[in-house]
Amino acid sequence: MAEDDFSTKYNPSNYKTNDRLYRSYRLSDLNEGIEKLELNTIRFPDFSCNWSRFSEPADIRQRKYGLPTDGCFSFSVDKAQYKEMATPCHDPLLENYSHTEVRQLTPEEPLTFEPPKRRKLSSHNWSKTKRLEYRQNIVNNMTIELEATA
Amino acid sequence: MLSTCRINDEVQGTNMPISYQDGQEYTSKWLPEWLPKDRNTEERVISYHFIISGVMFSARIKEDPKFEVQTVSTKEKSVLDKIESKIFNRLVFPSHWSQEGISRPNMQCKLDAFDICKHLFKEYNMIPDRIAPTKEEGIFLAFDSSTGDRTLIVEVYNDLEAGYLVNDNTCKQILLSEDITDYDFAVATNLING
Predict the structure, then answer these.
(1) To the nearest whole number, what is the mean pLDDT of chain B?
(2) B132/A42 touch (CB, cutoff 8 Å), yes or no
(3) pLDDT over threshold 80, residue B17
(4) Quick one: B122 exposed, middle or buried, by C-beta within 10 A (0-12, 13-18, 19+)?
(5) What's the CA gap between A130 and A121, in Å, rounded?
(6) What per-residue confidence (pLDDT) applies to B194?
(7) Which of B86, B88, B71, B65 is nearest to B13 (CA)?
(8) Which end of chain A has a smaller Cβ tally under 10 Å, C or N?
(9) ipTM value
(10) d(Cα B127, Cα B123) in Å, to the nearest integer?
(11) Is the CB of B162 inside 8 Å of chain A's CB atoms?
(12) What are phi and psi of A108, to 5 degrees?
């Protein structure tokens, strides 16, 4: 970390495709009788993550509203960029330099483009089917880093 | 009145509305519609036991060739009642989703989700293994294959759009995904049922 300047804000092109993105979950996110996360607990972008370059899985418990019982799953940057529907954008916070928002792209925008924060896109930007696929692809490729305990 | 109905000690239906008044003799008037009404013959009589509000009632009723069909419709009603109850009364919405600004499924979305369940049950004999809210604001339905290696996932949203996909849980691969427009699940159910 010493070589990184913490005043730097990175661009989407600075993410390596095999970098991991960490996201929290709770036991109540699991469907009844199922021990793994399913599609319904995954949001379509935009959503927040921590970037593995600057954080460890357990750091998600230190975020605002985080709990010591929170679990953590991860997925790679190339999965966040599935079918070029979204891309990770560095959004450093005072208390969390690794904070990353996976932001939705329009079909015309390249993966290197950084969509503005809180940009509102039409819900028809991507079809429901494509949005379903995006979320299932994350489920199919996620790794549980820490099990939720409550 | 809601009750559990047992026939020859086997549960044949639950939560069935049955007309009943205390202290009155059980006559065909009080029998559920799906039961045979003719109780006069002595041949091939079957004993029926009704448990209403915890009290068991017995009736001896002639076996009827129509009975099989009527039994099926009773089971169908029971399955659909359970699905309906889950969708409308027993969905668990995690409290922290509200903090994240996620809306609960609305009534029309629930009605549409139930319609899809009815269709999948009646046309393809499929019963959802899991019914839950989705973070995309709507209802999530999951139908597993008998081996569990494939799942049909349906989501109905508060804006009343709906989509489905079939996932291969072993290969971690999406096999099919479609918007739901005409309730045609033939290809999806073929993938699930092999």
Answers:
(1) 75
(2) no
(3) no
(4) exposed
(5) 15
(6) 75
(7) B71
(8) N
(9) 0.92
(10) 11
(11) yes
(12) -90, -15
CA distance A123 to chain B (A): 10
Which residue has tokens 């205390």? B22
> What contacts B145, CB < 8 A, 6 or more positions away?
B151, B192, B193, B194
Q: Is the model more confident about B67 or about A11?
A: A11
Residue A11 carries which side chain, given as an amino acid letter? N
Distance from B172 to chain A by nearest Cα, in Å? 5
Q: Are B78 and B34 in contact (CB under 8 A)?
A: no
The verdict on a CB contact (< 8 Å) between B135 and A40 is: yes
Identity of the residue numbered A89: C
The reply to whether residue A128 touches residue B94, judged by beta carbons under 8 angstroms, is no
B143-161 mean pLDDT: 96
Q: What residue ranges do the domains of chain A occupy?
A: 12-146
User: Cβ contacts of residue A145 below 8 Å, gap of 6+?
Assistant: A22, A57, A71, A72, A73, A74
> Which residue on chain A is closest to B134 by alpha carbon?
A40
Residue in the structure block whose two tokens are 């092999």: B194
Q: Using one digit for the tens of pLDDT, what is the confidence trace for A46-85?
A: 999 999 999 999 999 999 889 999 999 999 999 999 999 9
Q: How far apart are CA A132 and CA B154, in angstroms?
A: 9
* Rounded CA separation A90/A88 (Å): 7
Residue that the structure tokens 């089917």 belong to: A129
Q: CA-CA distance, A25 to A70, in Å (whole number)? A: 6
State pTM to two decimals: 0.78
**Length in residues, chain A:** 150
Q: CA B145, CA B128: separation in Å to the nearest integer?
A: 10
| Interchain CB distance below 8 Å, A141 and B177 | no
Of B94, B164, B177, which is closest to A28 when you measure between CB atoms? B94
Mapping DSSP to helix (H, G, I), strand (E, B) and coil, where does residue B149 land?
coil
As a whole number of angstroms, the distance between CA A64 and CA A68 comes to 12
A75-90 pLDDT, tens digit per residue, is: 999 999 999 999 999 9
Q: According to the model, what pLDDT value does residue B22 have?
A: 35
Contact residues on chain B for A33, CB-CB shorter than 8 A: 130
3-state secondary structure of A49: strand
